[in-house]
Every structure is written in structure tokens, then in C-alpha cells.
Amino acid sequence: MLHIEDLNIHYGGIHALRGVNIEVPDRKIISLIGANGAGKSTTLKAIMSLIPKTSGKIVFNGKDITKMSTRNIVAEGVVLCPEGRRVFPDLTVLENMTMGAFLRKDKEGIKKDMDWVFDLFPRLQERKWQLAGTLSGGEQQMLAVGRALMSKPKLLMMDEPSLGLAPLIVKSILEIIKEINDAGVNVLLIEQNAKAALEISDYAYVLETGTVSLSGMGRELLKNDKVRAAYLGE
Amino acid sequence: MDQVTLFQNLVTGVSLGSAYALIAIGYTMVYGILRLINFAHGDIFMMAGYFTIFAVSSFGMPWYITILFVTVVTVILGVTIEKVAYRPLRESPRMSIMISAIGVSYLLVNSATYLFTGLPRAFPQLGFLQKVYHIGDVSAPIVTFITPVVTIVILFVLLYLVNFTKIGMAMRAVSKDFEAARLMGIEINKIISITFVIGCSLAAISAILYFSPRPMVFPFSGFMPGLKCFVAAVLGGIGNIPGAVIGGFIIGLAETFLVGIFPQLTGYSDAFTFVLLIVMLLFRPTGLLGEKIAEKV
């Protein structure tokens, strides 16, 4: 589905990604874990063409998206739910979701997806007319995920969806991610909370200073001594 | 001041204020999306005045074609300025793009002086606009009566556009967060261009309405109105469209009545505008309807 080959990025004068190779197969949840500054967010931003790539190739569903504009990448079905929620604070919940569907013309499909999102997050339905800036952190995260789903992603990339949220909400967000994946959306997940991420992932990559240092099935990595020492604090 | 003079001043002040309001909307919308004070906006307005002169005097266009022509040419000018002078500086510190705007302002004034000479040029009669019309004892050119109507109609159309259409939503989204907007598939450059199209067409319409009851256009014609409309936008709360209109009305009325009530202060009417600005900045720096400064992160 998504295939990243030898991706190199120079970002703010440093060689941020050094030849990263990542494979996201169909219908799976894939995690990227790693310390701060390892290049996780950079990888996702590069996929979306938000930052320029030095070299490398990114192929999605057999299509080369390396040089595509962000708009066209979204239109292909690759969607990033950015770190820090980034909802539009003075747009209502409903308007935020409408913005998620900005490129879509299928009115019925939009309506259906909106119902689905409200089904996943009933809280959003209650607060439909409220300005997003007045929502709690957890609700904003729900809105960020819901807004991303409104783009009808084939591949949903999530950057730290649990950052700064209460443990209970983290759990429900992760459960929702599984539910989204079961509904046929591929997920590429970045998490600081490595244990939680590995538990729900089919496969994971460990990034270290811009390169993939380790990869494997989520549950296997959970048992890996190096991963346990470095990211699980055990 | 007797009743007739009062109404006469009221009509003139509201009309002047409406013309200011249209320019102020341009400042406020561009600021809202780019956080840029487009110092060249007043000079774009001045250029629209010259375009009108050429449309009528050189090409002999009828008034309705003139309005269309002037709007289109002004929009092309404004969008080109954005592409050439502002877009390449989008990632630079905000000061750079502001200085670039000041540069464009000087460039326009000097180009106008070079191309059209520094001598004032007579503003042409546009169809029925200058015909004098009487309501009771109050008499003024028709354009004076039309201007507020045009402004109010445009205000409501804009409010609808910004609040209830997808493009308007996208504008509000872009004004808060470029990157998040891009992730929705919104093309930032397109939205910014649309903002300049709106701002410049309003400047063009305003130029026709503003210059019609006045005799001349010269290269510095845009300087004072530009500055005053910037003040109007700040007064109403920069970034806020109804605020810009209210600010425009306040300045237009204040200026007209100051001269009407104290004719001996005529020379100070411009200064009065800036006194208003200073007072507003002292007591309510965000303007009448301004955005809150503290933003939740």
C-alpha cells in the first residue's frame, strides 16, 4: 500500500532522515516509535510533501507520490492527523469536519462518514455547534481524528494522538484506532507511548537518529530487550 | 448647526465612511489571512483611480464597462503584487514582508508619477453618478447616496461568503493554521489569491465611488485615504470585517462633522483621525470588535 524507499531529508541544517525504508501493507496498523528527534514526525511530514525531500521514493497504491503536492496526496487518500491536534479553534466542530471533507464532492458519502464519526465520538455530536477552541483536550483530539476521517483516508497517519491526554482517554483513542482499522482504513501511527502503540500494532519500526534501527511484529518488539530498555523504561 | 446642514453632513459623512469602509475591508481581510498590513493597498486604490480615467478618457468606455474593466485590471495588479512581492517572503520573518509592502507602495506611487506625471488629472464623469440629486433640502451627487447602499450590500455578501460557504470556511481555517489547512487538501496560495481578488475589487469599486464626487487624481491620492482606512480597520478591530465597516463609518463621519462644526479646524481633519487611533489604542488596543489577543494553544 505505502512503500518508502531510501528517504533522505535535510531539515534545518541537519540530516534528519538517513535512508529510511518503511513498508505499510494493506489493512494493517503500523507504528513508528523512537525518541524525540528521531525523525518520526519528519517522516510523516515528508510523505505529505509538507517539507522538501532530499532524495528517496514514496509509492502509494502503485502510484509515485514523491513529488505530488499536498493537495493531490490528500486526494489520493493519504491523510495526516497532525501532532498537537491542530483543530481550527474558531471554526465550529461541524465546520472543522466540513474542512476535513474539503476535496470531496460526494454529498451522500460525506453525510455517511459524518454519521460514522459521530457514532465513533458521540461527544462530537453533542458539541456540533461549539467552537473547536472551547473543547477539552480530549475532545479536540477526537475532533482531529474525526476531521481526518472526513477526508476519506485510505491511509490514516497519526502523529502522537495520545499526547497530553488523560490515561482513560488515551485508551479510548487507541481503541478507536483499532476500530478505524477494522473498518478498512490503514493506519500509520506515531506514538511516544510505545507500549500502547506496540500492543495494537501489527508491525512496528524503531527510528533512531534518522534511521530504522529495528523492526518487527508489534508483540515481538514488546519482548525485545533493547526496546524494553530504551522505550518502555524497563 | 441647523437641520439641513446636519443632514447634509450626515449624508456626506456616511458616504465618505462607506468608501473608506470598502478599502478598510481590504486591509482587514489581508491582515486576517497573512497577518500582513498591506501598505500598498491605498496605492492600489489610487491606481484604480487612474485606470478609471484611462478607461473613460482614452478608450471612451461606457460607465458599466468601465466599472468592470477597472475592477479586473486592479485585481490583476493586486494579485500580481502578492505573487511577486509577498509570496516569496511567506516563510520569512513578518518584518520582511511588511517592508516589501512598503516598497511596493513607493513603487506604485513612483510608477504613477513616471507614467502619468505628477500633475493631477481630472476624474471623468461616469454616467449618472455625478448628477445632483435632491432629497428635501439636502442635495448631493447620486454617487453620494449610492455609496452606502453599495457598501452595505457588499458587507452582507462578504459576511455570507466568509461564514456560510466552504471557501469562506477555508479562509478562516487558513487564517489560523496554514499547515493544518494544507493537510485538508486546501491550497493556501489559492485562498490567499482569492483574498487579494476580493480586497482589490473592493478597492477598485471604492476608487470609483470615492473619486467620482472629487475633481482630481494624482499619484499621492491613495496615501491619505489608505492611511485612514488602515486606521479604520484598526479602530474596528483588525481582522474583523464588520469592524472595518464600522471603523470606516466612524472616521468618515468624524472627519465630516469636525469640519462641519468647527470650520476653522478644517486643516486638522486628518490629524483628528490619528488622534482617534491613538485614543483607541490606549483604551482598547484590539479595536471595537477585535479578536482576543490571548489564543488558546
Give a description of the structure:
The complex is a heterodimer of chains A (234) and B (297). By secondary structure, chain A is of the alpha/beta class. Chain A folds into two domains: 1-77 and 153-234, Rossmann fold, CATH 3.40.50; 86-152, no CATH class. Chain A contains ten helices and ten strands. A six-stranded mixed sheet of chain A has the order 6-7-8-3-9-10, sandwiched between helices. In chain A, strands 2-1-4-5 form a four-stranded antiparallel sheet, with helices on one face. Chain A is globular, with a radius of gyration of 17 Å. Chain B is mostly helical and 297 residues long. Chain B has two domains: 23-221, no CATH class; 224-297, no CATH class. In chain B, 71% of the residues lie in helices and 4% in strands. Chain B is built from eleven helices and four strands. The N and C termini of chain B lie far apart (53 Å). Chain A binds chain B through residues 48, 50, 69-71, 74-75, 79-80, 82, 86-91, 95, 98-100, 102-103, 133, 147, 151, and chain B through 166, 169-170, 172-173, 176-177, 179-187, 295-296.
